Amino acid sequence: MTTVHTNKLVEDYLRRLEQAAAPLARARRAELVAEIREHIDDALLEAGAADEVAVRNVLERLGPPEEIVAAAGPVQRRAGRLELAAMIALAVPFVGWTVGVALVAASRTWHGREKVIGIVLGLMPALIGLLVLMAAGGGSESAVPGEPVPVGTSPEAHSESSNGLGPIELFVLLGSFLAGPLAAVYLGTRLRHPSRPSELVSA
Amino acid sequence: MEPGGTRNSLSQLRRGAVEYCVLALLRGGERYGFELVRKLSEVDGLVTSEGTIYPLLTRLRRDELVTTFWRESENGPPRRYYQLTDGGREALAGFTEEWARFRDGVDGLLKQEGTR
């Protein structure tokens, strides 16, 4: 009764539904798709026809897949494999930061603003640290080495700053190592906040 | 208020009310999903997209207002049936009372606004 063409209409619709339902837990998503498939079968049976017009009518009455998923209300977000990998990577300096940032950007679980905050948080101190190191490196080559660090007046501080690594530089460098884990923690806690699927779609 | 806002708040109102309409439909005994959806969409202006009922049924089950069980059907695969729980019955009774007050209150205001 169903032709290849009408079958394709149904399968396309169900695929769109599955994509829209990506934020839902796997079991719920499978259940929803199965229920909608059953509904389509029942409705076609009731209509007594399965031609293109009948199929289109049934799908139209069901409504857009995105609307169906939005009716599920706020969903509890979970960290998928990608999100876990991103958070672990962010805690590892340098190579990890780069990988972590790429993974965060690719994630479909975090939305726009969270991604930006996570990435900036993870990378900013590293960038600042790099700038400070470069400035310090440039500074030690020029005439005034000990000037910018009035904090510690002990001999050690002086000897350190003459190497281009004063307390401030060390602090920034240390901070940049902590910022990755901090970004990971931030992104992790955001996952505890439920989110509407529609938010994810627009992100 | 922008037109989109009106539509949005109406659809929220509708969504909230439909939940209890499902419970009301189950007062007389168990029904399966498709049956519920058909009954609801027969009511004018209640359901715009039939598909949205299914996530709602899942929510009702999660909130333990309904329970589900499977039953063989004459034609085709087994069907999932929905049944009211005691909690669902209570929630429905509470809503029925609240709704009457809410409806009368809103009606009163809407009419008053017109006669000023």
Could you walk me through the main structural features you see in this protein, from its secondary elements to its overall organization?
- The complex is a heterodimer of chains A (203) and B (116).
- By secondary structure, chain A is mainly α.
- Chain A is built from ten helices and no strands.
- Chain A has two domains: 69 residues, no CATH class; 102 residues.
- Chain A is rod-shaped.
- Chain B is globular, with a radius of gyration of 17 Å.
- The mean pLDDT of chain B is 89.
- Chain B contains four helices and three strands, in the order H-E-H-H-E-E-H.
- Chain B has a three-stranded antiparallel beta sheet with strand order 1-3-2.
- Chain B is α+β, with helices and mostly antiparallel strands.
- At the A-B interface, helix 2 and helix 4 of A face helix 2 and helix 3 of B.
Largest interface, C-beta closer than 8 angstroms, per-chain residues = A-B, 24 and 22 residues
Q: Poorly predicted ranges of chain A (pLDDT <50, ≥5 residues)?
A: 141-147, 149-161, 197-203
Number of helices of chain B: 4
**Share of helical residues of chain B:** 55-70%
Question: Which descriptor suits the 3D outline of chain A?
Answer: rod-shaped
End-to-end Cα distance of chain A:
41 Å
